[in-house]
Specification:
The structure is a homodimer. Chain A has about 130 residues and is of the alpha+beta class. The first copy, chain A, has a single domain (about 5-120), classed as Nuclear Transport Factor 2, Chain: A, CATH 3.10.450. Chain A has helices at about 5-20, 25-30, 50-60; strands at about 40, 45-50, 70-80, 80-90, 95-105, 110-120. A six-stranded mixed sheet of chain A has the order 2-1-6-5-4-3. In chain A, strand 5 (about 95-105) and strand 6 form a beta hairpin. In chain A, helix 1 packs antiparallel against helix 2 (about 25-30). Chain A is globular and about 35 Å long. Chain A starts with a helix and ends in a 16-residue tail after the last strand.
């Protein structure tokens, strides 16, 4: 039987599949419609509200037949009716790292928040560079 | 009577107060101890697990009597037993933007996840720079 964590990771896969295929309709269906939603795209400001969040996706996906994105090493964190998936993203040559927050709707998970920002390089940084800004 | 959202913003304030005063004991008390916890510090990799998350804070706060951080414009998003606070951070001269996920423990909120990454400059970018990486 498929478990909560598997379903959560499946929803996360579906989010990146919609992204990669620039499928705005699938993206709409994946975002929660009965919970507050928000997004922080890389280097961009906070976007709050379903209409505003979907408009941000339309702007990103508007003239693409597809999007060169893949995600790696997803980690699922279950917090009851909410679930978080943390993963790495590669968008073209950019390496990013993301927090995706999902809410459970019966047996499905729908996304309520996404933040993505720069990831460290795969190579180990030097000792004096290991300490992050915070 | 104080509401859920006010309590959630209060917990977010407490998180930044612990950070600013480099109070590792307060930080320990603020992080959830019965839920999975994780953190993504700016430009750093995913850290999972309470011991690992607290060790990351100890490394950041270890030789500081205080930390030059302030947060601004917090926005609370209630998802039932989970709450998200989105806010801007200023750390020294760095401008960051954060997702803080909290879990409700009776009447309190404890932090379960934090991601912080670069914020856009306050000035409006030029037209061709407005589109984020994604």
């Amino acid at each position: 039987m498929i478990g909560d964590e598997e379903r959560l990771l499946f929803a996360n896969d579906a989010f990146y599949a919609a992204f990669a295929s620039a499928d705005i309709r699938a993206m709409q269906d994946l975002w929660a419609d009965k919970h507050p939603v928000s997004v922080i795209h890389p280097g961009a400001d906070i976007v709050v509200g379903r209409a505003e969040v979907l408009a941000s996706w339309k702007a990103i996906l508007r003239d693409d037949t597809g999007f060169d994105i893949e995600h790696r090493n997803p980690v699922a964190r279950l917090l009851g009716e909410t679930g978080i998936v943390l993963c790495r993203e590669r968008v073209g040559t950019h390496h990013l790292i993301a927090t995706n927050v999902f809410v459970r709707i019966v047996d499905n998970w729908r996304i309520a928040h996404h933040q993505s920002g720069p990831a460290p390089l795969q190579a180990k940084p030097k000792q004096e560079e290991q300490r992050p800004v915070h």
